[in-house]
Write a structure and sequence with these properties.
It is a single chain. This protein is of the alpha+beta class.
């Protein structure tokens, strides 16, 4: 907010601009359209800065959640001159994303997203590009077993590598971030490139670490200011660093794509990139001019798949390990169930139905962590009458934020919304139950296309690690001292911390001694 205050001070020091601001105030309050009265309520915006003076950009999801308690489940705020409609609570978000999916199904493209994706890829496109790329991605990823047996085998193999890394720390404190992110990234790598990478591969480490930084920086307060006032870009260190990371990762991806292109065999499709190149080649040979299958769309689609499939799953898994160390009595119940059901063998996805408490814990980790609190911004495709309000399409559509944080913390849906409580997902007989308000992957047309894979990864990685290790705080740190305050970006990461992964076999031996 210091940047905003500085801007306001600079503006107020100029008499001419001050007069212009006063004129804008007069126009705003005195010449309102009758349609304005049909719009959702919200706090009065100031000229140019909108409602920035009452919002905490470092915890925007919390600011918006608090405003919803005053203005209702549908309200508007202004980020600078840009009007945004916020949807809060399960029923409201479901009504928009599921029941009125067509009206709310387009993606709002912020300025930084334009810089990064250039209207290509899957996550941040609309129209024919989005339809073609999503259809191709869903079909191709399904062919490579995403969420099915083939993916399961890849994940089980990767759990062995990850357990070995954890074992090498010999029960000493370590940061789980990099090994977990490398393991999860390797699942996407196997599907996209056709092979995994060693954790000590310097190029692989650079790409994964940069990708995580890109997601973190994209959600930072500085970049949110840039989205509002793009002219500030060249003077913002965060923006320059972000663009540098993006260009470096795209260059590294291009090298990998070129290697696959050189050895491409249409009769031996190794992964997603091969499938894309084969489709592109087929269209060129048949004389069809489908501009969607081009090199830039390939790079952006691959980049989107890694962003959606690596950071989110890795972050959720790290939250899970932290919460196990924070709540050892829950960890003990997970251990007991895993030991009783698996009897020492490796977990497989079929075991999920026989491990209801473990599965409920994983669901509750996703709910409480709420790692994508704002979802990704939507926009209206037409004028929408919604819950008694008029949301106008305007010239380029109105930005709509489905506040997933409010869905996963909805007091009318969850018995103890602010408490880590696996019973949210268990019936009186201890069986897993489905909760409609469980929306960590969003919903509707823009629901995460990797949901099936993510659910499989979370179950297999979490169960495998809990089978082998007991997670504790570092020596001298109590469970109560473990900090659950998130680090805010596009994704809510745990605060920097270290854990001890104590081999359970060794722990049992030491107890008997």
């Amino acid at each position: 907010m210091a940047l905003v205050e500085t801007l306001l001070l600079n503006v107020s020091s100029t008499g001419a601009l001050l007069a212009a601001l006063l004129l804008l105030l007069v126009i705003y309050f005195c010449f309102r359209s009758p349609e304005d009265d049909q719009e959702p309520p919200g706090p009065k915006p100031l000229p140019l800065v909108g409602n920035l003076h009452i919002l905490d950009l470092k915890q925007l999801h919390v600011s918006l959640w608090n405003l919803s308690k005053k203005y209702g489940s549908v309200f508007k705020v202004h980020l600078g001159p840009k009007k945004i409609v916020v949807l809060a609570g399960y029923k409201t978000v479901k009504q928009a994303l599921v029941n009125q999916a067509d009206e709310f199904g387009e993606r709002d493209i912020t300025r930084i997203v334009q810089d990064i994706n250039k209207e290509h890829g899957i996550l941040f496109t609309n129209g024919d590009t989005w339809k073609t790329m999503r259809r191709f991605a869903v079909s191709t990823l399904r062919d490579f077993g995403m969420g099915k047996k083939l993916s399961e085998e890849k994940i089980i193999q990767e759990t062995r590598y990850l357990r070995e890394v954890f074992e090498n720390f010999q029960g000493n404190p370590f940061d789980t971030t990099q090994p977990v992110n490398y393991a999860v990234s390797n699942i996407i790598s196997a599907i996209v490139y056709g092979n995994r990478f060693e954790y000590d591969d310097p190029k692989f480490k650079e790409m994964v670490n940069r990708a995580n930084q890109i997601i973190f920086l994209t959600g930072s307060a500085s970049i949110q200011i840039y989205n509002i006032i793009p002219v500030l870009g060249p003077w913002l260190k965060t923006w320059k660093l972000l663009i540098e990371y993006i260009q470096s990762n795209l260059a590294d991806m291009q090298v990998l794509v070129d290697r696959l292109r050189e050895t491409l065999n249409p009769l031996d499709c190794r992964g997603f990139i091969d499938a894309f190149l084969i489709q592109k080649q087929s269209l060129e040979e048949s004389g069809e001019n489908d501009s969607q299958f081009n090199d830039l769309n390939l790079l952006m689609t691959v980049s989107n798949l890694f962003a959606a499939g690596t950071d989110t799953t890795g972050t959720t898994l790290r939250w899970g390990l932290l919460l196990m160390a924070k709540y050892p009595h829950i960890q003990d119940r997970v251990h007991e169930e895993i030991d009783r059901v698996l009897d020492g063998r490796e977990p497989v996805i079929e075991d999920r139905k026989n491990l209801p408490y473990t599965d409920a814990v994983i669901h509750e980790i996703q709910r409480l962590a709420s790692i994508a609190p704002l979802s990704l911004p939507h926009k209206t495709s037409c004028d929408v009458n919604f819950n008694g309000y008029l949301i106008k399409k305007a010239r380029i559509g109105t930005c709509v934020l489905p506040l997933l944080y409010s869905v996963l913390r909805d007091e009318s849906e969850w018995e103890t919304p602010d408490t880590f409580n696996p019973k949210h997902f268990l019936n009186e007989n201890g069986q897993l139950i489905k909760r409609d308000a469980f929306m960590p992957f969003s919903a509707g047309r823009r629901v995460c296309l990797g949901e099936g894979l993510a659910r499989m990864e979370l179950f297999l990685f979490f169960t495998s690690l809990l089978q082998c290790f007991h997670f504790t705080p570092p020596p001298g740190v109590s469970e109560d001292e473990l900090d659950l305050t998130p680090v805010v970006g596009i994704v809510l990461n745990p605060s920097p911390h270290k854990l001890c992964a104590v081999n359970r076999a060794e722990k049992t031996t030491s107890i008997h001694k």
